[in-house]
Amino acid sequence: MSRAVLSLGANLGDRAATLAEALEALAADGLVARSALFETPPWGPVEQPAYLNAVALVDGPHDAAGWLARAHELEQAAGRTREVRWGARTLDVDVVTVEADGAAVLSDDPVLTLPHPRAHERAFVLVPWASVDPAAVLPGHGPVADLLAALPREEVDAVIRWEPRP
Ligand SMILES: Nc1ncnc2c1ncn2[C@@H]1O[C@H](COP(=O)(O)OP(=O)(O)OP(=O)(O)O)[C@@H](O)[C@H]1O
Ligand SMILES: Nc1nc2c(c(=O)[nH]1)N=C(CO)CN2
To answer: Using CA atoms, how far apart are residues 126 and 20, in angstroms rounded to an integer?
Structure first.
């Protein structure tokens, strides 16, 4: 058993349907809370369409490696194939943090680095995370609210709550 914070993103196909399906599947893994969907400009060097992002808090029967395996299963179920690093994808699921026995799991293994090495600089992770857990702390980096305050204002403001068109 462990608690994890997962970041989900999609920028190809029916983004909202893909995220809804993945979040539904996580119900079987102990989904505790999930954020709304947020539309976010693409982060990184690759030109690509806007993403929808969400964060899920899970507390279930996996260890850290098990959460990564679930992340890959969800990506595969969404038809994801391996492509360009930081490029467009039907579904990307990252393991942001894992906590077991009350302590953060730390790892510098490139197969599973924990906490996720780029989470602290990604408004598309921090804004949805803070929305479901305002007191969240990113191990090694501090309160998520402080990390958000340290990011350029325009990056934070560009993460916009998304609703389906009526
Ligand atoms: N915390 C983590 N969460 C998800 N994948 C991780 C993590 N740490 C290491 N990895 C490894 O990173 C590899 C590449 O993952 P992925 O294709 O999702 O990267 P990316 O989304 O392009 O970049 P980023 O990791 O910056 O979001 C995975 O196969 C996985 O083994
Ligand atoms: N806004 C946003 N940008 C990204 C995302 C993502 O989920 N959201 N995922 C990426 C894959 O590495 C690259 N860039």
So the answer is: 20
CATH of the domain at 59: 3.30.70.560
State how many domains the chain has: 1
CA of 122 relative to ligand 2 center, distance in Å: 9
What's the predicted TM-score (pTM) here? 0.97
Question: Which helix (H) or strand (E) covers residue 77, if one does?
Answer: helix 64-77
Which residue range is the domain that position 121 belongs to? 2-161
Per-residue pLDDT of the chain (166 residues; tens, 9 = 90+): 999 999 999 999 999 999 999 999 999 999 999 999 999 999 999 999 999 999 999 999 999 999 999 999 999 999 977 678 888 899 999 999 999 999 999 999 999 999 999 999 999 999 999 999 999 999 999 999 999 999 999 999 999 999 988 8
Q: Is 18's C-beta closer than 6 angstroms to any atom of ligand 2?
A: no
H/E segment holding residue 53:
strand 51-60
d(CA 10, CA 88): 8
Residue nearest to atom 14 of ligand 2 (CA): 43
> Residue 12 falls within a domain, yes or no?
yes
CA of 22 to the centre of ligand 2 (A): 16
166 inside domain: no
